[in-house]
Amino acid sequence: MNAQKKRLSKSILTGLAAIILPFGVQASSDSPKNMHQLYEDNCASCHGSDHGGFIAPGLNADSLKGRSPTALRSLIMTGSFDTLMPPFYGRLSDDEIRGLVKHLQTTPKQANPTWTIDDIKASIKVYVKDESTLPAKPTYQINSMDDVIGVAARGKYGRGSGSKAVFINSVTHKQIGEIPTGTAAHIIDYNPANPRWAYVKTDTAEIFKVDLYSMQAVRSVKTGFNGPGLGVSRDGKYIMAGSYVPHNAVILDADTLEPLKTFELEGVDPDGKMVSSDSGMIIGTPFADIFAIALENAGQVWVVDLKEGFPVTKIEKVGRHLHDAFLSHGGSKLMVASYDDSIVTAIDLKDRKIIKKLEAGCVPHVGGGSVVEVDGRTLGFGTNFGDCDKMVVSVWDLDKMEVVKQVPVSGGTESPAAHANAPYVAVDIISKDRRARTIQLIDKKSLEVVKTLDVGGHAYFPEYSADGKFLYVSAGYSGDEVVVYDSTSLEKVASVAMESPAGIFSHGRVRYMTRGLSPDEMKGAK
Amino acid sequence: MKLTILSGLLILGAVQSVNAASIYAGEAKAAAVCSQCHGIRMPSADAPFPPLAGRDADYLKTALKQYRDKTRKSDIMNAIAGSLSDDDISNVAMYYAKLKP
Fold first, then answer.
1. Which of A61, A86, A241, A451 is the most buried if burial means most Cβ atoms within 10 Å?
2. Considering only CB atoms, which chain B residues are within 8 Å of A162?
3. CB B39 to CB A162 under 8 A?
4. How far is the C-alpha of B38 from the C-alpha of B50, rounded, in Å?
C-alpha cells in the first residue's frame, strides 16, 4: 500500500513536472521582501518563522541544498500525501511558487528574532472590554462544564476560516461553539479555578482567552512566533507560554493576559555545551504553586515558583532533547519524555530532583500521557514515535518507578488516552500508511491490544469524555471529522465535521489532572 | 443442474465481492489521490477546489475520463487523471457518489 502510494505520488509528480516544464517562463521578478511576506503568510506557521522548522521541516538554503526546484514546485502545488502539507495549487500563482522555491533555496536559517515583553504587551487585543457584561452561566444547555470537549481544528492550510477551536457537548456530541483562531489551533487548556475560562494557543503563538459560557474570545496576546507550550497555574491566576521561535517563555496574568516576566531559555546541555533552547512542555500542577517547563535542547526542566520575582530552580541532565510530559501522584511527580535517548525521566517536584530514567521505546512522545490505577498499582502509559524495529507502548509502575511491560502495537504512536471508567487505553497509530487510519485499544488489566479501530483520515489524539462513556478521535488531515465511539462496545456513535482536527482536550482534565486517574486521586493529594 | 446453480452462485459471489472491493479500492484511491485537494466530504472552506461527495457517479466518471484524454483542460487534473486506470476511475466515482456531503 505504502509503496503503491509512493509510486502513485511519483507518477503524479512526474506528470506535473511534464506539464509545468513546457511553460518555462522566467522566474518571478518579485523582491525577496515580498517573498518573505509570502513565506510568513503561507508557510511559517508550520515551517518556522526563522526557516528552521517547527512541526514541519526547516526550509532554508542548507536543508534544501541539492533539491530539484521542479520537484519542490510540484510538492508545493500538490501538497505532500500523508502529511499536513496542503496543495497550494490555485492559492498561489505559478510565479509565486517559483519565486518561493528560489527564495527558500537561497535563504539561510534566520537568527533567533526578538519578541520582547514590550512586544507581547503591545500585542494584547481586547474583544470584550467589560467582562461583567458576560452572561453568568452557559448560554446553552449543558449539565456540567466538565462535559465540554475542545478540538483544535488546524484548518487545511494551517490558517484561514478552517482554523478554529471547536467546542462540543460530549454527552450529546453536538457542537456548542467555535472560536476562529486565524492560524492553526494547537493546545486548549482550561482554568482549574473558574470553569468559564479556556485558553487556546495557536502554532503562531497567539493565546486566546475564551469565555466558554458565551463561546467567544474576550482577549488575545501574541507570545512569540511559533510554539505550542502552554500551562495554567492551579489557582487559575497565571498562565505560562513557551516558544520555539524565539527561545523564550513568559508568565502572563491569566485574567488580563498582561506579561509579568519573560525567561530566556538557555543552559548547559547533558554534553556540557551551552545552548539556546526551544520550549517544550509547560505544566501547572495541583501539587503546588509552580510551573514546570522543559528546555528541549538544553535537556533541563525548570521549576518556577509563583511568588515575588518568579524564582527558578533548574534541574539539569534530564535528557537529550526533551519534549512533553505528564503528572502523577497528586501532581508531585513529573514524567518527562526525552527524544534522543529514548527515555522518560521521572522528576520529584517536591525535592526538585530526578528520581529515575525509564526505558520508553523509540523517540518517546507521551502526548498528555495516561495514568491508571489497576489492582493497587499506579500504571503510566507512554507512547513513542517508534522509528525503530520494536513498536511498543511503554507501561511503567509509577510507585516503584520501573518498567512493567512494553506492549507490542502495530506502529509508532503519539498520544495515549485513558479514563478511570473506561476499560481500554487508546493509542493512535501514526505510521505513514494505512495504519495511520487506526487507533489501537490496550486492555488495562491484560496490558494487551484487544481491538483496532479503523477511524479514517490520519486518526490521532484520542480523548475520553469526562464521564468516560465516549472515546473521541480526530480523523485528521483529509478525514475532516471527529469520530465518537462508545468506550465499552466501541461502536461508532457520532461524527462532527471540521477541517483537519488534531488535539482533543476534555474539560474533565482539570478534575483528574492526568487522563485515566479518577478525581478522587486528586482530592487525596490535597 | 447442480453445477449450474453452483457456478451461478459463484458468479454472484464474485460480482458481489468485486462491488465491495471497488468501493474499498475507491476509498483508498480517493484518500491517496483526490482528498488531498477535494477532501472526503468537503474541501477546505478556503480551497479553490469543488466538492465531490454525493456527485453523480456517471458525471464524475465522464469528467475524469475527459481530464485524462485532455478533452477537458486543467493543468493539474490532466496530470492527476492521467495516472488513473479505468478501474480507478469507476471505483473513485462510485465511492464519492455514495458519500453524503
1. A241
2. 44-46
3. no
4. 6
As to burial, measured by CB atoms within 10 angstroms (0-12 exposed, 13-18 middle, 19+ buried), residue A129 is exposed
pLDDT tens for A68-122 read 999 999 999 989 877 889 999 989 999 999 999 999 999 999 988 899 999 999 9
Contact A198, A152 (CB under 8 A): no
In this structure, are A8 and A152 located in the same domain? Answer: no
Query: A371-394: per-residue pLDDT in tens?
Result: 999 999 999 999 999 877 779 999
User: Is residue A409 situated within a structural domain?
Assistant: yes
CATH of residue B51's domain is 1.10.760.10
Q: What is the CATH number of the domain that holds A46?
A: 1.10.760.10
Which domain-ending residue is among A53, A87, A106?
A106
> Does A125 lie in the same domain as A94?
no
Residues A145-160: pLDDT tens digits? 999 999 999 999 999 9
CATH number at residue A127: 2.140.10.20
pLDDT of residue A215: 98
Question: Which of A15, A81, A478 lies nearest to residue B40, judging by beta carbons?
Answer: A478
User: B73 to chain A, minimum CA–CA distance in Å?
Assistant: 12
pLDDT in tens, A250-289: 999 999 999 999 999 999 999 999 999 999 999 999 999 9
Q: In angstroms, what separates the C-alpha of A19 from chain B's closest C-alpha?
A: 7
Task: Report the pLDDT value the prediction gives residue B20, as an integer from 0 to 100.
Answer: 52
Partners of A438 on chain B (C-beta within 8 Å) are none
CA separation for the pair A48, A168 (Å, rounded): 31
SS3 A7: helix
Q: How many domains does chain A have?
A: 2
A5 chain-B contacts, CB cut-off 8 A: 32
Q: Residue A403 is placed in which grid cell?
A: 518498567
As for the ipTM of the complex, it is: 0.72
Q: What percent of chain A has pLDDT over 90?
A: 84
Report the C-alpha gap between B24 and A144 in whole angstroms. 41
Q: Does A160 touch chain B (CB under 8 A)?
A: yes
Asked if residue A112 is part of any domain, the answer here is no
* Among candidates B39, B75, B83 on the partner chain, residue whose Cβ is nearest the Cβ of A480: B39
Do A153 and A499 meet the contact criterion of CB atoms below 8 Å apart?
yes
Enclosing domain of residue B56: 2-98
CA A316 to chain centre: 24
Are A177 and A36 members of one domain?
no
CB proximity A476 to B under 8 Å: no
Q: Among all residues of chain B, which has the CA nearest to that of A8?
A: B83
CB atoms inside a 10 Å sphere around CB A411: 18
Cβ separation B46–A18 shorter than 8 A: no
A9-19 residue pLDDT tens: 444 444 444 44
* CA nearest to A2 within chain B: B32
